[in-house]
Specification:
- The protein has about 120 residues and is α+β, with helices and mostly antiparallel strands.
- It contains four helices and four strands; from the N terminus they run αααββββα.
- The protein has a four-stranded antiparallel β-sheet, covered by helices on one side.
- β2 and β3 form a beta hairpin.
- The longest helix has 27 residues.
Length: about 120
């Protein structure tokens, strides 16, 4: 009888370990969105033309130097999933900062939780 309990505990432990590994792989292999992929391609230190070429399309909006910030800011928006890409340029016109995010503020964990119907 004690041998059967031990065997069941071992099987449950192996199943829990397997489930944990599957979840970890799922988080590691979560596909990145198009705006995050574009952010990774933005060449920091390059000019506006190089940034637009790296993103692959003209910006959807932005601010010119002097309106809000000392440098120019370009913004791309993916209207399907409300994701955005924000690239800030310095006074010399070189890209110095690139950020990607979501207009609804959802993190990857929020998206995973949204997949579960009971949460």
């Amino acid at each position: 009888m004690a041998g059967n309990r031990r065997r069941v505990r071992v099987y449950l432990g192996v199943a829990a370990l397997g489930l944990s590994l599957c979840l970890a792989c799922g988080f590691l292999l979560w596909p990145e969105g198009p705006m995050e992929a574009a952010r990774r391609r933005v060449p920091l230190g390059e000019g506006e033309a190089a940034v637009v070429a790296a993103v692959g399309r003209p910006p959807d909006g932005g601010w010119v130097a002097g309106q809000v910030r000392p440098g120019t800011v370009l913004v791309w928006v993916n209207r399907r999933d409300l994701r955005w890409l924000y690239v800030e340029f310095d006074e010399d016109g070189r890209a110095m900062k690139a950020e990607a995010g979501s207009a609804d503020g959802q993190t990857v964990w929020d998206q995973v939780v949204a997949l579960w119907p009971w949460w």
